[in-house]
Amino acid sequence: MNSNHDKVILDVRDLKVYFYLDEGILKAVDGVSFQVKEHRTLGVVGESGCGKSVTSLAIMRIVPDPGRVSGELLLTRKDGTNVDMGQLDRFGPEMRAIRGAEIAMIFQEPMNAFSPVHTIGNQIMEGILLHVTSDQKEAEEIALEMLAKVQMGNPKQALNQYPYQLSGGMRQRAMIAMALACQPAILIADEPTTALDVTVQAQVLELMKTLQEELGMAIIFITHDMGVIADMSDDVAVMYLGRVVEFADVDTIFHNPCHPYTQELLASVPTLEYEPRTRLRTIEGTVPVPLNLGPGCGFYSRCRFAEDRCKTEYPLWIQVEEGHFIRCFRNHGG
Question: Are strands 41-45 and 218-223 parallel, antiparallel or unpaired?
């Protein structure tokens, strides 16, 4: 690995997103820390409801009310200057200048992310006109170039089409074109292939890898699919109940998973060795709602190694080996 690949461009420290509701405080994200490095892909994995998507919304500073965000979001801009996005007004000009130009996002369902009443071309050009050039013709050329880059069948035609006129796979490509039009340093992809069938999913993932090499961006890839994590990620953060419970490079996560939750996630993936017609392994129970939680480890009620102290104490980060961290009592004096 080239040494400049270790340059951290986004340092997330102790990120919390709390929703203050009548029933109590819902801790959707509760003290998440990780680093995103240049040209690398960070996979964020976990079951539905563990805080992955809210983490991405917090980074983009688009958490809806009554959500309250705290923590540091230290971004190194393309021009080399540093800024803590957590301190910026989320509706202010500085944050608007970052969205799209420095960090862009692809959403799970492009139909909800595109406006139904504007053409695809207009929506891609909006960001280009805001961040890159005020020349309409130049913006249109960049939009066409991006649509060609994402292998859109007929870019000129797509430019004038509305979202409903495109298939799911083509909409997702248009969405990627829109996100990458201003060549951001970081792309956040929130389950971008969930709504697609398997062949289209493979094409979209391949496309993202190609564009990453071409444009040199970092990717935060959010998914619940361990197969996609294996295919896409360099580093992996495993999330459970609003917290990162294990962090390591992708090979370590698959060959030496240390947190009971990561082990269970991997065990529930079907493999070629599976006996036909046997039941797939599942993780017992469900992710609790993060409302008025007790002080202990959130995985306590589902963990086969749970001890008494897991219910009352929350384990701190421990380093298993270099670059490999977990939050669990099992690996230190336990």
Answer: parallel
| Helix ranges, 220-314 (H) | 226-232, 250-255, 260-267, 308-312
**Phi-psi label, residue 137: left if phi above 0, alpha if psi -120 to 50, beta otherwise:** alpha
Question: Which residue reads 């036909």 in tokens?
Answer: 276
Nearest to 268 by CA among 44, 42, 47, 41: 47
> Any idea which residue has 């459970």 for tokens?
240
pTM: 0.89
User: Is residue 265 a contact partner of residue 283, using CB atoms and an 8 Å limit?
Assistant: yes
- Among 208, 163, 326, 293, which residue's Cα sits nearest to residue 223? 208
User: Kind and range of the H or E element at 8?
Assistant: strand 8-21
Give the three-state DSSP class for 300.
Answer: helix
- What number is the average pLDDT over the span 162-189? 89
Burial of residue 41 (number of CB atoms within 10 Å: 0-12, 13-18, 19+)? buried
Range of lowest pLDDT (37-46, 104-113, 149-158): 104-113
Question: Ramachandran region of residue 284, left (φ > 0), alpha (ψ -120 to 50) or beta?
Answer: beta
In angstroms, the CA 75 to CA 328 distance is: 30
